[in-house]
Amino acid sequence: MSELTVGSIVTAFYKTGKYIGEITEIRAQSYLVRVFAVLKHPIQGDLHHPKETSVGIFHERKALSYREQMNAPKSMVKLYQEEQIPSYQDSLANALYKLEQELSKENTDYSSMSLTNLDILKKEYYRFLGIKKDDTLLDRQ
Known about the structure:
single chain, SH3 type barrels, 2 helices
């Protein structure tokens, strides 16, 4: 396995999301990774009680932003194997779509609350990314 260095393009898990990014700094227990694309959108709700709805706060979890940096534990970072990195907008749209499809197959309180959160996030993504619904994959339904 090749050594990861500053400038390496990697995949990294952060909380419940998975991203493609570039290592910008090597730390004792983690890599500082700058986000370029989203592979898996974070799940909604309480991280300590996954898929439970009877928690104090059912958290709305956004994907990390383009070029945002994260401290990813070294064990959660792997070299990115593909030749091209998808655009942030397309990758976010795909990750969000996949999560919505998974949740829509379930008939639970958790899936319902998560889909409600994702609808709110979708509107924010449209606004902050300066894109229209017609220009993205965010509305494939």
